[in-house]
Amino acid sequence: MTRTISEREFESFCQLRGVPLTRIPEADTRTPDYEIAIDQERIVVEVKETSPNQEERESQRLLEERGYGIATGGTPGDRVRKMISSASPQLKARSRGALPTMLVVFDQGRVCGHVEGYHIRVAMYGLEQIHIAVPPAGSGRPHATGASHGPKRKMTEMDNTSISAIAALVMSGPGQHQLLVYRNRFARVPLSPMLLQPFGVRHYDLGTGEGLASDWVEITSGHEP
After folding, report:
1. How confident is the model at residue 222 (pLDDT cuts 50, 70, 90)?
2. Domain count of the chain?
């Protein structure tokens, strides 16, 4: 089978870092792409990619020509939401509620950064919304009281719990890969950062800021909050 660009780049990353990766043979039904086996522990992996649409390709051309583009990227997190919906059934079937899973996402275009941490966060937990207090007439001006995650969330206590984490495969240059793992706080089987950290993989959990739309917090080596 012909490998996609994202699959080739993921395989290259694993080869360069020494991650023990095995391709899952194709079957009559859709299956995930890979398994990682580390010290008798297995991680089921599905790799997805997004490519620039026509507006983004034109924006990239203008960026290279004049230094700025025109693309807006649409609703934040939409590309990642689609990849979550596509990957979830395959990961669930393979893991059977017993193995951690990881959806690896890769962006062929960089104009809108569809797999950046912000897009992954709002895809998983919902768009950011600002809370406004409106005082009675004549007693003051409306003012912001905080922020939280709101609509369009894909990860809840009931939804997509079979996905342990979403990992962004990013490249700063040829052969220069990074894998940034964003863990799902609602995962039925959590992904331990201890498995992949020895290979230079960075892990993040959602913070717990009170009254705010929490951001990602990096998990330091050997520590799980």
Report:
1. very low
2. 1
